[in-house]
Specification:
Blueprint lengths: L1 E9 L9 H8 L5 H9 L3 E3 L2 E2 L11 E9 L12 E5 L3 E6 L16 H8 L20 E7 L2 H12 L4 E9 L6 E4 L2 E3 L7 E3 L7 E9 L3 E8 L6 H8 L22 H9 L5 E9 L6 E5 L4 H24 L1
Parallel strand pairs: 7-14
Antiparallel strand pairs: 1-4, 2-3, 2-4, 5-6, 6-7, 8-13, 8-14, 9-12, 10-11, 12-13, 14-15
Length: 326
């Protein structure tokens, strides 16, 4: 289904000499420059009644008519799946995604996804690319996500992500007792042989992760990781690259490592942790319409909280035993 809306504007005099596509981006900021260029090329933009090309210079004072075509972008079915919202207004949703929830429908997951849940919450999201989702989390990564509810908000949020103006902080429990924080600056791309995995590659895309210690245990560490870029599996790949993979990671975690002399409760918890211990904890961005700062925090999920408590108990018990032996 396609709805058509005619938008009219007057090109300002001081825009004389500018390219049409650039001028339109200023007149209609709710639409991306690539979308405007596609409409120009399709003949859906006229300048004083005449079709034009994206690179054509403007004179100033012309009347431009934009034929906006609103087409259903997402054809998934709406499903009544409960969502935990951290923030909501007419322009955005911010939600806490649980571990195990797939973001987009696909061959193996045609239903029961975040997109299906969002369409039930707001059917108008079907008109937006990817139902308004501007960034994703892996199925078994929990935490905070922002979803645009309008095309203008979607365009602005995508631009913020591209400019690296969105603060994304994660909590990760990794194997090994790190002594300090640091930065991983290592490009990432698809693994050359295993298409399900990503890998650090010299010919990969720029990828930067900053990390600092939150709590060091005997043989594990809780880290705060901040994304400067947003590559697929970025934190998981970078931590494995450091030889400190995320606990429970089925793709990059390697063999199970148990602290020497660990309690049965901790051993059971580590053996039973079947997803990557990674949680998107904090998201900060400028509101796409008002420009005001928005900060949302998702509480640590129960499985990670329990694991961290057991690691803490283990560290305290062994420290007490060490003191008793002195």
């Amino acid at each position: 289904m396609t709805d058509v809306e005619l938008r009219t504007a007057r090109i300002p005099e001081d825009a004389a000499g500018g390219r049409l596509d650039a001028v339109l981006a200023g007149l209609f900021p709710e639409y991306s420059r690539s979308r405007l260029a596609a409409w120009i090329k399709a003949g859906d933009v006229t300048v004083d009644g005449t079709p034009a090309r994206p690179r054509d210079p403007v004179l100033g004072g012309e009347t431009v008519v934009l034929r906006v075509q609103s087409t259903v972008q997402t054809h998934a079915e709406a499903e009544p799946i409960t969502l935990e919202l951290l923030y909501e207004d007419p322009h955005v949703f911010v939600l806490n995604k649980p571990a195990g929830l797939v973001v987009h429908p696909g061959a193996g997951n045609p239903a029961g996804t975040l997109v299906n849940a969002l369409l039930h919450r707001d059917p108008a999201l079907a008109q937006l690319p990817r139902a308004g989702i501007v960034h994703r989390l892996d199925k078994d990564t929990s935490g905070v996500m922002v979803v645009a509810r309008t095309l203008a908000a979607h365009t602005a949020l995508v631009a913020q992500l591209s400019a690296r103006d969105v603060h994304r902080q994660y909590l990760a429990i990794v194997v090994g007792a790190l002594v300090s924080g640091g930065t991983v600056n290592a490009p990432i791309d698809r693994h050359p042989r295993d298409r399900l995995r990503m890998a650090v590659r010299e010919d990969g895309k720029d990828a930067v992760t900053h990390y600092r210690l939150r709590r060091r245990y005997r043989a594990h560490t809780a880290l705060e990781c901040r994304l400067e870029t947003g590559r697929t599996h970025q934190i998981r790949v970078h931590m494995a690259h450091l030889k400190h993979p995320i606990v429970g990671d089925p793709l990059y975690g390697g063999s199970l490592k148990l602290p020497k002399g660990a309690s049965e409760a901790l051993i059971t918890a580590l053996r039973g942790f079947r997803r990557q211990a990674l949680h998107a904890e904090v998201l900060e961005f400028s509101h796409p319409i008002t420009g005001q700062p928005v900060r949302c925090q998702a509480p640590v999920p129960e499985d990670m909280r329990q694991l961290m408590q057991l690691l803490e108990d283990d560290a305290l018990a062994h420290a007490a035993a060490e003191r008793a032996r002195q």
